[in-house]
Specification:
Layout (H helix, E strand, L loop, with lengths): L1 E4 L2 H7 L5 E3 L7 H11 L19 E5 L2 E2 L11 H4 L5 E5 L5
Parallel strand pairs: 1-5
Antiparallel strand pairs: 1-2, 3-4, 3-5
C-alpha cells in the first residue's frame, strides 16, 4: 500500500481529503504511482504530468524520505519505505516568484 500526499488544489480537484492510498505491484516507481493515481482519479490527468509526453509539469516536485526525486528517472524504484507505505510519496506544488 503506497501512500501519496497531494497538494491542496489537487486534493480538491480529486475530491479527497488527506492521503491517497494505492495498491501497487513491485517495482514501485514514480511512473507506476502516477499511472495508478491517474487511473483512479482521471480528473488529475494532465495536472501532474503532460498528457502526451508524460513528463513532470513545471512547478510540480516529487519527494520521498526527505529527498527531492523530481529529476530522477520516472522508472527508478522508490525507496522500500515508500513502497511499503511506511513513508509517503509527496507531490508538491512548487512556488516561484521574485
Amino acid at each position: 500500500m503506497v501512500r501519496v500526499v497531494l497538494p491542496a488544489h489537487l486534493r480538491t480537484l480529486a475530491r479527497v481529503s488527506g492521503e491517497v492510498t494505492l495498491d501497487l505491484e513491485s517495482p514501485v516507481t514514480p511512473r507506476t504511482v502516477l499511472d495508478a493515481l491517474e487511473a483512479r482519479y482521471p480528473m488529475l490527468r494532465g495536472t501532474i504530468r503532460d498528457h502526451v509526453t508524460h513528463t513532470r509539469r513545471p512547478f510540480i516536485r516529487f519527494f520521498a524520505c526527505e529527498q527531492d526525486l523530481s529529476h530522477e528517472s520516472s522508472d527508478a524504484p522508490l525507496p522500500d519505505t515508500v513502497a511499503s507505505g511506511a513513508e509517503p510519496f509527496l507531490i508538491i506544488g512548487a512556488m516561484a516568484g521574485g
